UniProtKB/TrEMBL annotation:
This protein's UniProt keywords: Bacterial flagellum protein export, Membrane, Protein transport, Transmembrane, Transmembrane helix, Transport
Name by which UniProt lists this protein: Flagellar biosynthetic protein FlhB
Biological process, per Gene Ontology: protein secretion
Region Disordered, annotated ranges: 1-23, 221-247
Protein task: Required for formation of the rod structure in the basal body of the flagellar apparatus. Together with FliI and FliH, may constitute the export apparatus of flagellin.
Organism for this UniProt entry: Vreelandella titanicae
Family: Belongs to the type III secretion exporter family.
SUPFAM superfamilies cross-referenced by the UniProt entry: EscU C-terminal domain-like
This protein's GO CC annotations: plasma membrane
Biased segments, Basic and acidic residues type: 1-10, 221-234
Amino acid sequence: MSQQPSEEKSLPPSTKKLRDARNKGQVAKSADLVTAMTMLACTLYIAISVNDIIARVQGLLDLAARLYTEPFDTLWPQLMTQAGEVLLMSVLPLVGLTLLVIVLTNIVVMQGFVFSTEPVQPKPENIDPVQGFKRIFSIRGLVEFLKSLFKMVALAVALMIVYRLGLQSLMESSRCGYPCVQGTFLALLQPLVITALIAFLLVGAFDVLLQRWLFERDQRMTKTEQKRERKDQEGDPTMNQARRKQRREMHELNAKIGVQYSSLMIGTADGWLVGIRYVRGETPVPLVTCKASPDQAASLLASAAPRRVPRVADPRLAELIAKRAGNGDPVPDGTFQAVADMLVAAKLI
């Protein structure tokens, strides 16, 4: 049997699908921007702290030189202690800064903190050679190749320019000693570092936009998937239509409130008074349309008089209905039979 072709994913991802993917740790990530920001932070740190680092190393070398003139047993512990301090004070801030920049850059790129163990769980497709071959020749693979090629070309061009313009100066600087060599070397290193930072930052900024586009492209939905998701969220369309119809009917029934919609008045002018509506085929059960306490019953009864609404003088039943049901509600349990008898007596049933 021939297999049917898979349905095309032509619809943009829904908010729910993006949220579910985020809960699984699937978000747009940019390793290039993280690398660029880390390089920038480390370069700035080294540029600011280079004099302090050189001073610490120079002090360590001076202390080591004293081993030839002072007792080894006395000087060796001091040398080890100072070496540890130089290592910690020079490397530890750099490591801490690197970790901080990596975390903050990822939070900005991923638009918040994301934690999930699913990406590190072993999956068969991760070791499938066919899937790996497809990933290599996919759009992502092509993009990664082009980004790497751009960075290599930028660095190669910068290195070639520096080589042609500064190599002669570097060779001749050895005549005037270490200060000249150091100055010339830094002058040649500076354009290389700046070029590398600019190239990595440009690629990183472009990579953020590209990764978000690729992620949304991978999360696209088919029409069947969209319908299934909408059904899961909103329920079966047939049932929803029936519920909407039922709510509309109840709203129409509840909207008919007031003495003008009353089929029967129960009560007296000096006691509780309620209006009841019952129309065959319209109201499944008798409904309360209006009610009045003893001090307002006379006014309500006067409003019903011009409309020739039948009335039954039963203040106790009227009080029971008025206190247990609101306007638009069915008559309470326990009063249904009495109200039905009154409707029959009034020839309304």
